[in-house]
Structure formats: structure tokens, C-alpha cells
Amino acid sequence: MSEPSSPACPAPTHTLFPAQPGAPVEWTIARGFVDYETAVAAMEARAEAIAAGQAREQVWLLEHPALYTAGTSANDADLVDARFPVFRSGRGGQYTYHGPGQRVAYAMIDLRRRKQDVRAYVCALEDWIIATLAAFNVKGERREGRVGVWVARPDKPPGLDGSPAEDKIAAIGVRVRRWVTFHGVSLNVEPDLSHFGGIVPCGIGQAHLGVTSLVDLGLPVTMAEVDSVMRREFERVFGPTG
User: Fold this and answer.
1) Three-class DSSP category at 196
2) From 122, 189, 202, 209, the catalytic residue
């Protein structure tokens, strides 16, 4: 998942993207794997209901079975090995992988209640994940031109030009319709990282830029622990959930 990144994102702050007074964001955790097409249909329906004033905002945490998705700017050459089902997605970005051990958080957020600025919203999503990682003593960072959250890997070889090695730990891809967002973020907790080998993730193919997870970094956390921290940090950035 990816969106155009901005060098102008402010430093992470609490309540960066607060809502006007109103109902708290509904916080939902799915049990078991959720089919991708089912999830997209549910997101689109919820976003339409929010736009019509018939439902409140929602964050939906889930896991997908192993699959690849292609965003609106995906390059067909970046699909190296279609070992899993491939879905065309209306979100921004290129190819990404979803699968067991990855926490996907779909956010249906009404920007009319907050700030009608998609770039600022993407920055806020990055801040949310950076704060979540910090709670596990992981320094997540944003990179100009590469949306998502990255971790420096001094233990890995640098690029041919001497650029330091970095791994992506969280991807971001959003779509906005009638100023209501859907799609969202995916945080690698304990996925099979070899599954990313079937694609060029987010179109980034340099050898010194890879993917990682919390468990790969030596943190054997559970999904429930991650969910708890994600909720707490979401509330600091976006406001209360219920």
C-alpha cells in the first residue's frame, strides 16, 4: 500500500488529527481470516453510510488469507510470482502482500469532521504506527518519497551507493470517497516474510530495502498485545473509540 509521501509531515504529536465533538470511532476486531473481496465490499458500504450520516466512523482490525493486491499505480512487472490470489484494488499505491500474522487496520474516517486534507491524513496514519512501534521500543521512521513506516537495519549490508539498509514494517494505502476514507494500514507482526518474494513490494526493488516484522526484529509479541497498543495510540492521534 502506498500514497504519495510528503516531506512536510509534522513531527508526531498527540491528537494530531482530532475530530469535532461527536460519537466515538467504532473499534472492531474480526475473528478468523476475512476474504479480501468481502472486506472491500463491507468497507465501501460502511463508507457510504458514514458519508450519508447513517453510521459512525470505524476502525476494523483483521487478518486476510495470503494474497497480493495491486493499487491504482501498480506496475505489472512488479508481480514476480503470482503464488497467491491477486486482487485489483482501488486504493492508492502499487503491489503489496497481506496474510496471516499481519495486522490490517481498515479505517473508515470522515475527513469532514477533522481536516479535508488527504496528505495530512496519511501523515496521521504514519504517526499512529510510529507511536505503536515506539511502545515496543522499535524506532519507526518515515522516508521522503516512500510512504509507510521504515526501520533502520545497520545489521544488513548497505546499498551499492552506500545507502543504509532499511526494512519496511508497515504499509499504508488509502482511498477517499465523498471525504470518507477506507483501506488503511498493515503492520507486520509475524507474517511469513518469504511471501513478499512474489512481488516487488510497493514498487521498491533496491536490494538494501526489504521488509521486516516485530517478530523478525526479535519481539515475540502477540496480536492481542499489538491490538491493545494500536487502540491506545489511535486514540491519542485521532480521538476516542468505543
Assistant:
1) helix
2) 202
d(C-alpha 84, C-alpha 66), whole Å: 6
Chain segment 172-205, per-residue pLDDT in tens: 999 999 999 999 999 999 999 999 999 987 556 6
Angle, CA of 204, 207 and 209, to the nearest 5°: 55
Helical residues (DSSP H) of the chain, grouped into ranges: 36-51, 118-134, 223-238
Nearest alpha-carbon partner for 186 in 102, 74, 101: 102
Q: Three cell numbers at 79?
A: 508481480
Percent of the chain whose predicted confidence (pLDDT) is above 90? 71
Q: Please choose, from the candidates 83, 54, 48, 70, the residue with its C-alpha nearest in 3D space to the C-alpha of residue 180.
A: 48
Give the pairing type, strands 95-98 and 67-70: antiparallel
9 is annotated as an active-site residue: no
User: Cell numbers at residue 22, please?
Assistant: 461527536
The pLDDT score that the predictor gives to residue 6 is: 43
d(CA 163, CA 175): 32
pTM, two decimals, is 0.91
Taking alpha carbons only, the member of 218, 194, 220, 184 closest to residue 66 is 194
**Over the stretch 210-240, which tens digit does the pLDDT of each residue have?**
999 999 999 999 999 999 999 999 999 999 9
Query: What is the phi/psi pair of residue 33, to 5°?
Result: -80, 145
Task: State the Cα–Cα distance between residues 21 and 112, nearest whole angstrom.
Answer: 12
